[in-house]
Specification:
heterodimer, A: alpha/beta, Rossmann fold, 16% strand, B: alpha/beta, 16 helices
Chain lengths: 319, 392
């Protein structure tokens, strides 16, 4: 039996639908009775916007959706400064002092001068949520989905060991970095990449996969988003794209048929490009899945539709 | 918005006379008083392509242009001749200079720019000490605001050079992919307040000045910070700030000067977006922020807008496709289905753009239709330029 993933990290180039896909995955995982936490770390209020709920602030973990399957999705916007104050409280009982010092810019200072500290604080909060235990349950959440930084930054973000290399040699942050790294490298963590079937996002996916390999963090699935399926074969696509197809739709004038054919040529050329991109991704040797382009725009219904497609194609072990 | 009544009227009747002003890119390029064009927008909306296309068009219309790109896709960079990250503007080959213009392109080297500033403004020994400092190394290569800060610094340098030597008369700037909206406006302030902040001053001299009363509580905190960050970082920071202090005033001054330049009538902002919900939401944020800051904003460029020359509704296309479903007209069926999808997409995009326009009336706009292939060469950039300039 494949081990159940309890931490799903979702990355992708800007504009590929990374946040939407993370939300879809959270909903897919939220089958009957399960509790899923959806986290974001970039302060963009992407989650609350997507679900149409008031912004998530502070360390608040709020219910943002109940899935038709009977599961619950909670949302959390992790903020490095809040996480540091929480740290100071946990390890030094400095909660009030921490807040007071925030006025001096100490917290901003600490998280800014050491960019690595920032990443450890953010991943540390996610680690805490994954490992948190509550009464009568093995874990507070059955799974955590992280809407992670984009492909260009993901390897550095997750390479917590490198991040703390310049920091104190001892102390809680240092110790926790080891625990975080163990969690990230464990068989229960997977990083998924969202991409469009276009040159740039595919190139960035390839680069991110290569950058992540040395960290020993497992890569899960590559999700091809906004794909337009076609029943046509390669030769049909090629001749249509070349403009050598004459369409004869009854009821349309010759001119209209010509306009349709030239529109079809562009559409099929794009499909051929998409297929080339798909072939490039195949060489990565990772599971590939496809999510269809949603014409209606993204709302909660669309997220659930995406969740359904993810459930069908990913073995989510959502028992 | 200054005209509340008008805005309200628009909301009540979203379709009644909603005329979106046209963003005339050629007019902006043609106006010799326009010396800086800044393209901003969220990631993945085609900012770099837009900047490059505007630069090419301006150069071929007779302007002496330099385009500052941040992180271009490799093939686009190659076509502009900036495959090398060397921080030096280089002439773009194959530009039509018949109208007397020229085009140089450069890719921002964040750390290189920072190093140059340090070297240019301090003695060799001091510069050496700063460049070797661990904290400086982290700050110049990893700090989240450095890229934005350095983009502004570089812009200031290019502007000075343009003014002094007449090398260029137009600078086109592609902004870094912002973590959040307008980081590049906020980053200099953030970095300044960080290096000039109270915490740092306390750290350097906790027993002096009006803040000494705080010093008891502060030393507890400083001890904790040292435990978290390590003594090495703290001492690196101290050394760095001491060495950097003399330099720093200059940094701040230049950041302020650049900010002023951006607010002047010689600069103009273009907000780049695509007709999707997310991108338009980010664009709204940019527009509002620029308006708040009183920055000169010309309007919006909406990239990848889908169009069709065939006026057949999706319903009709689908119903004809259904009639043909069991025939051998496989290609016709697929073409009709694709057309129906395209028309639905166009409807969605139009609705998104209308919503945006009714919430922010008066923001001029130009559309660039979705292109079948990636923009990777000069020919394609010229085509984008034409689409940008053409009335939609």
């Amino acid at each position: 039996m494949t081990p159940r993933h309890t931490l799903h990290i979702v990355s992708g180039k800007g504009g590929t639908g990374k946040t939407t896909m993370a939300a879809g995955l959270a909903c897919a995982l939220a089958s009957s009775g399960r509790r899923i936490l959806l986290c974001e770390v970039e302060g963009r209020s992407g989650i609350s916007e997507l679900f149409g709920v008031p912004p998530l602030t502070g360390a608040e973990e709020r219910r943002i959706s109940r899935t038709p399957a009977g599961g619950t999705v909670y949302g959390l916007a992790v903020d490095a400064q809040d996480a540091l104050i929480e740290y100071l409280d946990t390890f030094y009982h400095l909660s009030i002092a921490g807040r007071a010092l925030d006025r001096f810019g100490a917290v901003d200072f600490a998280t800014s001068i050491a960019p690595g500290l920032r990443d450890v604080l953010l991943t540390g909060k996610v680690y805490e949520a994954v490992r948190r235990k509550i009464k009568n349950r093995p874990n507070a959440y059955d799974a955590v989905v992280l809407d992670a930084p984009p492909t260009g930054r993901i390897a550095r973000f997750l390479n917590v060991h490198a991040a703390v290399a310049g920091l104190a040699k001892v102390g809680p942050v240092r110790n926790q970095a080891d625990s975080i790294m163990r969690l990230l490298r464990s068989a229960t963590t997977a990083v998924h990449f969202v991409t469009l079937l276009e040159d740039m996002p595919v190139t960035e996916t390839e680069e991110a996969v290569a950058a992540l390999r040395p960290t020993q963090i497992r890569i899960g699935t590559v999700i091809e988003n906004m794909v337009t399926p076609t029943p046509l074969g390669h030769h049909q696509l090629q001749s249509a794209a070349a403009g050598s197809v004459i369409l004869k739709v009854p009821g349309l004038t010759i001119k209209q048929n010509q306009a349709l054919a030239s529109e079809f040529a562009i559409e099929t050329a794009r499909t051929l490009q998409e297929q080339q991109c798909h072939d490039r991704l195949t060489t990565l040797g990772l599971p590939l899945i496809q999510v269809a382009f949603d014409l209606g725009g993204i709302d909660e219904g669309a997220i659930l539709a995406i969740a359904e497609q993810l459930t069908d194609q990913m073995s989510l072990e959502a028992a | 918005m200054t005209n509340g009544h008008q805005a309200k009227g628009f909301e009540e009747q979203p379709h009644a006379g909603l005329a979106v002003p046209f963003l005339d890119v050629d007019k902006i390029i043609g106006d010799r008083e326009t010396k800086i064009i800044i393209c901003c927008g969220s990631g993945g909306v085609g900012k770099t392509t837009t900047s490059a296309a505007i630069a090419v068009r301006a150069a071929e219309a007779g302007r002496k242009v330099v385009v500052l790109t941040i992180d271009p896709a490799r093939r686009l960079a190659q076509s502009l001749g900036v495959g090398e990250l060397d921080n030096t503007p280089r002439p773009v080959p194959m530009i039509d200079t018949a109208a007397g213009g020229s085009l140089d392109a450069m890719m921002l080297d964040m750390k290189g720019t920072f190093d140059d500033v340090v070297i240019a403004h301090s003695t060799p020994e001091k510069a050496g000490a700063i460049l070797q400092n661990q904290f400086y190394m982290a700050l110049s290569s990893e700090f989240s605001g450095t890229q934005e800060y350095m983009a502004m610094e570089k812009l200031g340098q290019l502007h000075n050079e343009a003014e002094a030597h007449g090398t260029w008369d137009l600078i086109v700037v592609d902004t870094p992919p912002a973590r959040s909206a307008l980081d590049f406006l906020d980053a200099p302030e953030h970095l300044s307040s960080l290096l000039d902040g109270r915490f740092l001053r306390l750290l350097l001299s906790p027993t002096r000045g009006p803040l000494r009363l705080m010093s008891a509580g502060f030393s507890v905190m400083a001890a904790v910070m040292t435990k978290i960050l390590g003594t090495q970082i703290i001492s690196d920071v101290k050394t760095f700030v001491r060495a950097f202090e003399a330099l720093f005033g200059g940094f701040r001054q230049r950041a302020t000067a650049t900010f002023k330049l951006l607010s002047s009538r010689h600069s103009t902002f273009l907000v780049v977006a695509t007709p999707q919900h997310d991108a338009l939401r980010e664009a709204a944020y940019f527009v509002d922020r620029l308006t708040e800051e009183d920055m000169p904003i010309s309007g919006m460029v909406i990239n990848r807008v889908h169009t069709s020359t065939l006026a057949i509704s999706p319903e009709r296309a689908l119903s004809v496709a259904e009639d043909l479903a069991d025939t051998s007209a496989v290609l016709e069926v697929e073409a009709l289905r694709r057309h129906a999808n395209l028309m639905r997409l166009i409807e969605t995009e139009t609705r998104m753009m209308e919503r945006f326009a009714s919430a922010r009336p008066g923001i001029a706009r130009t559309q660039v239709q979705s292109l079948p292939t990636d923009v990777t060469d000069l020919v394609a950039l010229r085509r984008v330029g034409t689409l940008l300039a053409d009335k939609d």
